[in-house]
Amino acid sequence: MTASPADLRARAEAASAGLPALMLSAERLAASLTAGLHGKRRAGMGEDFWQYRPAAPGDTARSIDWRRSARSDGQFVRDREAEMAQSAVIWVSSAAGMEFSGGPDRPSKRARADLLALALGMALLEGGERVALAGQPPRPGRLQAERIADALVRREILTRDDDAPASDILRPGQRLIMIDDFLGDPAPMLDFLGRAAAAGVQGAALQVLDPDEEGFPYGGAVLFRSASGALSHDTRDASGLREAYLARLADRRASLSRAALNAGWHFGTHDTGAPPAQALLWLWSVLEG
Question: pTM for the complete prediction?
Fold first, then answer.
């Protein structure tokens, strides 16, 4: 069913109302990181010292670090680290389950994922990188942060339980960050990581869960139903399912972690009951390597 113009306008107005709060929260979170310039970790024309190396044929007398060379029998060159703009693409799941929150005292998984995506984007942009949400062209600058924020608050949650990035977003030389609960069918995501490895694309995958999904604090008679309603399970002894649930969650994480490792990626976890700065710091550290 196609939404009416009035429905579309109402949704647009609701999204716009949430934009200032998201921008402010993300700015505060991003400020907890020191951006600086992002080096490519190879010799180049940057300002930061990288390493000393023995002089080789072709090195000029001007390139020799005579002070360092005086402390040994050989001659050494002071290499600097190349500093050049990189690009990063951030994919945030729109699966129906991302709307879940186990309590009014904590955000939904979607809200936390959006906050982390925007704060990370702001920090990378501050460091001179080109950044975009998946499906958009990476650009630098403050205006790009506003574009990212607007796209995050306006995107619609899917009616299905699963979501996965399209393989056509893979571009050699770009870094990719994926944020999802990874509770749906793992096959598309595992296939995507394999394609990323083949394309030489590196990145990080962050699993965001609610504390209730982490600890399974249920007991007695409970009707479990997926966000889309496609799956359901009725039990009279929910506590009896806890051990099996936790084991399957551990297996899922182990599978994703192995796939990420094989692809040259990083896999991490975060729950919405923890401070978002912890997850942002992890993302920053693995991207900066």
Answer: 0.78
